[in-house]
Amino acid sequence: MSLARSPAPTTVAEFLAWEERQELRWEYDGFAPVAMTGGTVAHDTIQSNLVIALGNRLRGTPCRVHGSNLKIEVAGRVRYPDVFVACTPFNPRETVRRDPVVVFEVLSSGTARTDRVEKMHEYWETPSIQRYVLIEQDAVSAMAFTRGEESWSGRVLWPGSVLALPEIGIELPLDELYEGLDPAALRDPPPPPE
C-alpha cells in the first residue's frame, strides 16, 4: 500500500543505497520513493497461505518462494511484491532479485490500480516474469496472466478453480489460499474506525 512520496534518490542505484538506511520499507516507482504501509488480516492470511502452499510444493526444486520482505527490480523500478518465485541460484545476502518467474499481488483498495496498471506493465517489461497473479482479498477470486508473444493473456479463477503454474511445475487450488477466512465475511464492509 502506498502512503507517501519522499524527495530523495532518482535512480535505482541511488534508491537502493538510500533505502538501506531507512527504517520503513519503500518502493521506487521510477520517479521517487513510495512508502509502504500495512494491510488487513485477510491480506496477511492470503499472503501467508500462499507462501506456505508454494514453499511446500517447491521443496526439492531449484525454485524458491519469497514473501514481501524481499524486493525485485523490474523495468527500472523496485517493488516489494506480496509473493514471488525465482528459480536461479542466489546469494543469501542479496536484498534484490532481478529474475522472478511468477509474481503474486494481493489486491487492496489502496493498491489495486498500481497492481493492475503500473505493475502489470513493469512485469511485462521484465522478460523473466512468465506469470502474474492478482488475488482478490474481498472474495475467493483471482486473475492469472500468462506471458504471450505480444501481451498478457488472462484467466479468471473462482472458488473451486485450480491455479496452474507450469512455469514452476505446480498447481494450487485457489480455495487453499483463503484457508482460515470466512468467504461471507470477506464481502462485509470493514468496521468503522474506533
Automatic annotation (TrEMBL):
InterPro entries recorded: Nuclease_put_TT1808, Restrct_endonuc-II-like, Uma2
Top-level lineage group: Bacteria
The entry's keywords: Endonuclease, Hydrolase, Nuclease
Name of the protein this chain belongs to: Uma2 family endonuclease
Keyword field contains Hydrolase: yes
Hydrolase is among the record's keywords: yes
Coiled coil regions, renumbered to chain: none
MF (Gene Ontology): endonuclease activity
Domain Putative restriction endonuclease: 13-165
Family annotation (Gene3D superfamilies): tt1808, chain A (3.90.1570.10)
